[in-house]
Amino acid sequence: MKNFIGLIDTMYEIPLLVPSLKGNELKYVEECINDEWVSTAGSYVRKFEEKISDYTQSKYAVACTNGTSALHISLKLAGVVSEDEVIVPTLTFIAPINAVMYCSAIPIFMDADKFHNIDIEKTIDFITTETFFRSGYTYNKKTKKRVSAIIPVHVWGNASYLDELIRICEERNIVVIEDASESLGTTYTQGNFANKHTGTIGRLGCLSFNGNKIITCGGGGIILTSDEEHAERAVYYTTQAKDDPVRYIHNNVGYNYRLTNIQAALGVAQLESLPSYLNKKKIINDYYRSAINDLEHFSFLESPDYSDNNLWLNILEISDDCRLNVDSLINIFEKNKIQTRPVWTLNHMQKPFKDFQNHRIENAYKIVEKSLCMPSSVNLKTSHIDKIVSVLSE
Ligand SMILES: *Cc1c(COP(=O)(O)O)cnc(C)c1O
Question: Which of 50, 123, 248, 392 has its CA 20 to 30 A from that of 163?
């Protein structure tokens, strides 16, 4: 049987990314059901927000239905309005680009660096050569539209190095919204932001708790910020913009984006396991690297050494002289009941976005051609990796 994304996960002996729910998940969810607190009111939502804010050392954390809604509300809080432009990477999951579109704003696409993150040098080149600063705002020379925000994404859990970008964005009044959906647990070890978590550097940061992320609520997201007013407005906008909740007065258009108690209960239990998951991800990554050491045409994507990365997903790199391409490798793995995936199709080439501006995109094309997402679930066994590597060596 096929669904719209290919073979269903249960057909794989080794799926790409599945959650592990063996801690207190059932206990906490059962509690919600026994207490009949299943919806958006309920103690687990507050508890989850507090625990995420403690863990990430973010002053505030506001729970949302998913990472995409967290991005949408963050863009709104950043003051992004219709016809504004927002700088985004071309190599990322579609969610941040869609969130820009929900604001009737316009994405401008940037290239990817060697860690698959937004290319900071080219982004700064774009800001300094292609925009001008007037009356407190940055404008695009070509379109004359205001560039009001940028969304760096910490791709695969690799921290994006933000020191220089933050500096220029502060000078130019461009709000930085980090998409840390894939990078919960990743911290900086060097630079201005040493010891800080990804998602807590920009004015706003977004996390996702979708089923494939390092921890899951089934579905869920969080907005991180150190700004009290942003935190209050985030609650306001995610709960239908209630100015008077008794008389149903709404002075703004709001959204029904609040996380439910059942989802938050799952999240609280998952967060308890995060330290052990991070440890497992390190073991998996180490094992992959050593197992593949002798194979001529393959290597794993390096992680930056200015950060302690969560190693959420392992990316196989195929050498230029290898006679197999991404598609043929996926087929070979599929025949062996191993699920692998190409990286994302570049967003500046997707139908709804292909007419928008992009800047010096080069490296991202090669990444798409030469990279493969490999099974990386926390319950992956070394015997699974041995099987994957033996398929590769054949
Ligand atoms: C998962 C993800 C999101 C958010 O996804 P949701 O499914 O809406 O929680 C956003 N950006 C990136 C890079 C992601 O991987």
Answer: 50
